[in-house]
Amino acid sequence: MKDTQIQHIASTEFLKKVKSFMGENANLCYQCKKCSVGCPLLPEMDYGPHQIVHALRLGLQDMVLNSKTIWLCVACETCTARCPQGVDIVKIMDASRIFAKEYKVTPRIKEIPAFHSSVLTILKYFGRLYELGVVVLVKFKTGHFMQDVKMGLKLIRIGKLSFLPDFAMAMKVNKLFSKAMKMERKSL
């Protein structure tokens, strides 16, 4: 696999960038590891949430942006709820993903970009998460058409996946996406 090269930003600069972007002060973290102990996805991650926060504090931009952890975080907020200092680690993970995209860092798990773009597309058009739509888009983007078919059919059979999306919030969410795109264009 091709390694991604990123220019290293001075230690404090990357931390300041994340803080100004998301409003989170990672320097409050004293490495108690409660966030990592509570993380349900820790076994799949290359670094625990506490290690990402520590790397951020040390200015190890390459380590943070090239980690699987920032992409595997599902924003369940267990880490944030467990933090005795009130550090919102989910916001730090969000900012890290945004900067990784900005610096054109390719996630090491190839399905991740397909999943993220599919979720955003579905939210934009339907206003709510339409799981079957996400699955179909991811399958088309990755070419893994037959992978997980048995599980998908079982989920449909027991009523956990709906054939039809819910359009209740579509207009409101679409307006939010339009407003965000306009703001993003102005900032560039």
Care to describe what's here?
- This protein is an all-alpha fold and 188 residues long.
- The chain has 2 domains: 92 residues, no CATH class; 72 residues, no CATH class.
- The longest helix has 18 residues.
Main features:
single chain, 188 residues, mainly alpha, 2 domains, 0% strand, disordered N terminus
Distance between the termini: 32 Å
The secondary structure category is mainly alpha
Unreliable stretches: 1-10
- Mind describing the biggest β-sheet? none
Would you tell me the overall average pLDDT?
A: 86
String of helices and strands: HHHHHHHHHHH
Quaternary state of this entry equals single chain
Helix content: 55-70%
Tally of contiguous helical segments: 11
Radius of gyration computed on alpha carbons: 18 Å
Count of distinct strands? 0
Count the domains.
2
| Binned strand content | under 5%
User: How would the global form be characterised?
Assistant: globular
Spell out the blueprint of helices and strands.
Layout: H1 11-22, H2 34-38, H3 49-58, H4 61-65, H5 69-72, H6 78-82, H7 89-102, H8 111-126, H9 131-142, H10 149-157, H11 170-187
Short description:
The protein is an all-alpha fold. Helix content is 59%, strand content 0%. Helix 8 packs across helix 11.
